[in-house]
User: What shape does this take?
Amino acid sequence: MNVSNYTRMSGKTAAGSVEALRHKIDQSCPCERPDDLNLARHLLFDHVIAPDQASQRAQFEAVSRAIRDKLVRQWYNTEAAYQHQNAKRVYYLSMEFLMGRSLEQNILHLGLENVVNEACNQYGLDWQEILAQEPDPGLGNGGLGRLAACLLDSLATLGYPAMGYGLRYDYGIFKQTFWNGWQCEQPDHWLERPDPWEVPRPEQAVEVHLNCSFELNRGQFRIIPNQPSILRGIPYDRPVVGYGGKTINTLRLWRAAPQNQVDFHRFSQGDFVNALSGSLGAETITRFLYPDDSTPMGRGLRFVQEYFLVACSVADAIRRFRENNNDWTQLPEKAVLQLNDTHPALAVPELLRILLDEAHLDWDTAWDITRRCLAYTNHTLLPEALEKWPQRYLKVMLPRQLELIHEINRRWREEVTARYPDDKARFKRVSLIEPRAPWKVRMAHLAIVGSHCINGVSQIHTDLLKRNVVPDFVEMLPERFVNMTNGITPRRWLLQANPGLASLITEVIGTEWITDLAQLARLKPMAADAGLAEGLRKVKDQAKRRLVDTLKRQHSLILNPDSLFDCHIKRIHEYKRQLLNALHIVNLFDRLRRNPDLDIPARTFIFAGKAAPSYRTAKLIIKFINNLGARIQSEPGVRDKLQVVFVPDYNVSVAEKILAASDVSEQISTAGYEASGTGNMKFMLNGALTIGTYDGATIEMAQSAGEENLFLFGLNAQQVAESRYWYNPRWHYENDQEARVALDLIQSGEFDGDEPGLFHPLLDILLHHGDYYMHLADLKSYMETQQSVGDFYQQPEAWAQRAWLNIAAAGPFSSDRTVQDYARDVWNVCPVEVT
Assistant: This one.
């Protein structure tokens, strides 16, 4: 895109135009009566159907469009206020936004619950069935995307001028089903039906220039070098409604399209398939979230996705800046781009390219602007998750950006050498280019050098990042590194997910907690109140029974609502240690089989989460958990006290139901590997007690609630690191009965079903390949702590008191607090009053 194509407008003209149009909108859309949602009108004019003949899907779309009618004017007014004040804006770039369903949230945030209830009664609508018609948008996978969604909610609720930028994936990650206990992946076509919340903006499409072309050749996505092409990024906007409905920000998602849809010459000659191959190749870019990166084509597609997001978003942010500003040096005062992990790190050379090649600034000015505009959030300490892209990808697709990366690296080398002239090894460690073949660009290093601020997402994660991962950068750029502990929005994760508990809290302390979670601290002096304990038990029991009914209806899973619900719901990965949980269950199975009268409370272990399609070990762990559950169910003396279920197709809507019903939260990652976690905070807020390691934000939760009010166990991060070089899992097998019992039962084929030797690879990981994530090192401590959990659960009043103390201590883990910290310490932005 050329600078001359950016809209140029003086502040006076822009503000005048906005005010004039805003006045027209206010005149043409007078405030309607709150009891008139015009559902019949939407059914008739949108679907050409009478209300009494409408399907539940048509009813959902009608209700959603009626609600959208109510928010559109304020959505427009929000953008008008930002333009009128020429406010500094936050642009949040993320490959994932795990938003969850929008209808119920938007109704709650707009305060229209009573209006909608009356309308449903008037038209005889089944409200729960209408809500079930909305698919979860397939825009994310795990904590990365859910954090992005929580931050957008808080930005809007607090009135900060902000916009989310992501990709509009046609199919999302995948729909998870089970066949004989194995995970099966199916397309998640969440856009199969019209999405009533999105607004396409083709008039604001962005051109993305590449030095290659794409085609589908015999079903394979193929890159054609040295054949320049132009992709079009088509924006689709979704409203992000702040609580109270005063500020409504935007999530803008980009869909990839070719510049020319059809090769007319080929089509007219009868070559119908190849006439469309270029179009299909371009559209493939935003077809799926996370293409399988176990193949070269999958990795190449992922790289293109990341650049496509960056190119579209940076261009759009600059367009907005140029609407009211002509002085490029003011860009850092009007825009900050937050890079959510390394995925958008190409924003560094992309923004620099625009400032050099299109704005024609000198290098020093362009580089200073670039660095001051960008900030980078690191989400992981795992080496495999710190992206490194082969230079050949950039050489083929983005030669100018590669040239700029090399120049950044050259200047960075001069700076390093000037400060440490005798330390030749240092530059190899901090180089943007990996100093050995095959040459790769280190995206985390690029993001660090090109940003004015780098943050971790919990205190321990930030400390480990600074000490173990990038200590050389910290020594040279100490002022750039800060901690921003993650948070969650209480609107989604308590007010909406757990209305019973939310109502109980409101009865006690009022409604201020909804936008000021620190108010929950007022519950602490009342935690021992018998009436409050009884109220929590009733709320939890009701939530359990709702979950039981849902799982029975949707998945034919039968759960005991009177048992302890022990929940482990998160992405399946070895470091998150679902396998450690399973080893404990194997021991419980063995004990109960030997002694059915064992005095322990009935317990239901609830698992949920997806394994990456190419992650074989994670998929084998899922299979093991499912087989373990089936084996327990087949044992008459065990199944009354022990149950294992794996809930398929984990997403935001599933999480909402499980969180409200949970008694125990499993946060048992190997210490030093979980950056923060936000699931731990959601469980805490919903009154579940945490069994966890000294890892991520669980440490800060323990500091807030008191360690005595969590169940902590196992090695800490320092102990894990110090024992790494001498740790011998076989020692634990030979000396710890718990390890020996579990591994011997697995070795015996007890859980193999009709596939002998199926789980020997898990035994190899644990015993013969070093047990990298130290399952066996922590198993004994974990089981002892689990025994304490079971004993304590049999003291219902003490359990309820501890649950209330956890809820009361959840205030610091609001995403509102996180956003305020970012706004003050990273972004330097202020709220904007929207009228």
The first helix runs from residue 11 to 28. The chain has 36 helices and 20 strands. Residues 1-35 have pLDDT under 50 and may be disordered. The longest strand covers residues 220-241.
